[in-house]
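Hey all, quick one. A colleague (J.T.) asked me to put the protoporphyrin IX containing FE job into the tracker so the inputs and the structure tokens live in one place instead of scattered across chat threads. No bug as far as I know, just bookkeeping. Sequence used:
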Amino acid sequence: LQRITLYYWDSKGFRKYPGLDAFSGISNLSYMLQIRQAEGFRTRKLARAHQNHAIIRLGPNSLSFRDIEAIKDIYGHSTPCTKGDMYSTPAGAHRSLLDSVNKLEHSQKRKRLAAAFSAKHLEGWEFKVVDKCARMIAQFDKFASPSSSDATSPTLVDFRHWANLFTVEAIADIGLSQKLGLLESGNDIVEAEDEKGNIYKVSFVDSLRGVGRSQAPIVWSPYGYHFLKSILSLLSKGFSRQVRNSTAFNGIVRRLVSKRLDYQGQEPLDDFFACLAENQKGESIPLPRGEIEAECGVFMNAGSDTTAIQLTHVIYYLLKNPEKLQRLREELDTHIPSRSEIPPYASVRTLPYLKACLDESLRLSPPVSFGLQRKTPPMGMSINNEWIPGNTLVSVPAYIAHRDESVFPNSEIFMPERWLNDQAKEVQKYFIPFSAGSRGCIGRNITYLEQHVLIAALVRRFDFSFADPNFEMQWEERFNLWPSAMPVIVRHRTA
Ligand code: HEM
């Protein structure tokens, strides 16, 4: 009754905005339930609703914006907005770079970590990425052998699975100098450690997905979050399994940090962990163990899942568009002398069509598609010429911004060429797969390194085809947009 009264009281004047559904103005619950009602892809449903309305009410205090001019106001470098409640609600006692909401705390963390993500480190870490490419290619060579690929029942390779193994291995090495052996074993079983120091084994991907599956449905209710988590764990076996998986993810990170702290080798290790523990003068930075685990947790999560999604999408869109694949091959054949080579990053980072294919895939299916929540300052602010009162949750989903026909014509079509024309520079400010401003992705140099080198090496060497010629991607959206498994047949290129 109180909520209905507040709805009609309408102190912020939000009743004029249409809701995503009939109950959006009354309760956050209705947006939470959309996760079931929107065929697993809530932002796609929101995109349909935005076709007729520029601003949509997601909850009593939450607005989604369609117009791309709102990006600068909400996410730009000089925005007065802070991150919204969905970041602080599930966070533990120690904040990571990603979930720190306080601007001062964030800028101090970001300054400290910026060195780790600098170009200097990137060059030093390239060999770690090349090593993972070589090991993945060695496995794909086996799948492509005549006995595996030309038989009447060829070996089916789930590309998404291998993309996950690749990025987890790469980030564990870049982050904590750990070799997990996943690309050799072909599975994602890793060690985890509980709070008492007991070691057990779990699936990395299931654990990571447990974080998204247990948090994303309920995080929109800042006050009810912990209550809902407890009650759903009691009522739903599926939900309580996801909570256990998410606990296992913390266990994986704890184990990786323990092993890294135990390292007694002669050589100092060059990884993200070392940058976290020492400043540029080599003096050690005393951080609480909880904070180290929080930072490494984000690194292992944001640093692996998003890139695996993107690698899968790139191969998907290339296979769906054979003429684009052909054009990419021609570029790669000209610049990479041998099919067996893993190209140095310096030789592929400037290839325009390769970069255009990567960016076009990020545009069409951004791995983080939903509207990243920001909160307006207490005194309110103007967003795209609309006055929005203080402490309102606001967002522009990348999935929707990237479908703005005025800057991305024929937006549903995979068209890498759009990134090669004269307007490409101008539309960059509306291209937000990594978000924008001071809270934008700090790992974009690392992911572009991985994407360029792996996609160039794979496309140069192999022929992929869908196991089912009519294959269509399905998605499950939580925080990230997870593609379905993608079974392919791998052959060595003959042409
Ligand atoms: C295709 C790959 C990637 C995509 C699409 C992506 C996307 C994003 C987005 C949209 C954000 C903003 C999140 C928010 O505001 O809630 C973000 C932040 C972040 N990303 Fe990435 N990311 C990618 C790869 C990586 C990698 C490889 C790393 C680490 C190695 C990484 C580490 C981070 C961190 C630490 C933040 C928080 C930055 C801050 O708040 O200052 N990301 N990323």
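Adding what we noticed when we looked at it: Residues 97-98, 110, 171, 298-299, 302-303, 306-307, 310, 367-368, 372, 433-435, 439, 441-443, 446-447 surround protoporphyrin IX containing FE (CB under 6 Å). The chain has a mean pLDDT of 93.
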